[in-house]
Structure prediction request, 263 residues.
Amino acid sequence: MRMTGRFAPRLATWPIEPIVKRLRSLSVVSEAEEALVRSLAEHRERHAPGEDLITEGQSQRKPRYVVAGWAARQRVLPDGRRQIFSLILPGDNFGIAGRGAPPAPWSIVAMTAVETVDAAPLLEAAVEGRAPGLARALTAAAMEDERLLFDHMVRLGQQTAYERVAHFLLELQRRLQCTGLGDSQRFPLPLTQEILADALGLSIVHVNRTLQQLRRERLIELRSGVAILLEPQALADIAGCEVEAARPRSAAPTRRQLEASPA
Prediction:
């Protein structure tokens, strides 16, 4: 089905499909495990833009999955400057930490309106050995989060603004396609240039100039909250990365690994 240039807002309850697709992309999930995931839709919470989902230093954290909307892990300096470490997209989890976990090293804030569901039943089933497929998916998700954080460190420390923006857009496209919220070229991008600047360690002016350059070169289009990658391979060459390839699935985790997973 051809995707349009605009993503229409939903007024009804958001489907839980992004979570199901995300977990399936990480591990083989049984029908019973999928049914457990779908049952999470019964208990939802809605959060306004700017609302803290987790505050820095918080020890007790409720495990949640994002159904709709975008959030960010971030830290704000006393003078108001902000660094965004990662974006939390539909299908992602947060707050999954074992007993005795250290205080949260960052805050998690809703960048848009966000809808979440309680992930505790899923986590309990995985830890107790009743859902091995979900246990593998949770471990794979934690490893993927760590990989994304390392990619972000390299992006901030070694890439030019031109390379950073290209790499970041490709990363978002791949993540959103995985959950069925985008395709190989189009995906929603409900972020302001201020948020992009704080994620990429650039000024708003520099972000604007870089986006304009990519548009002039016919590499991207931005329209009505949607990003279109006109030349994904060219962007990958700029960013120094490869077009997304299938990754091997991880082995089943131990109980200790699950309980030590970071938020």
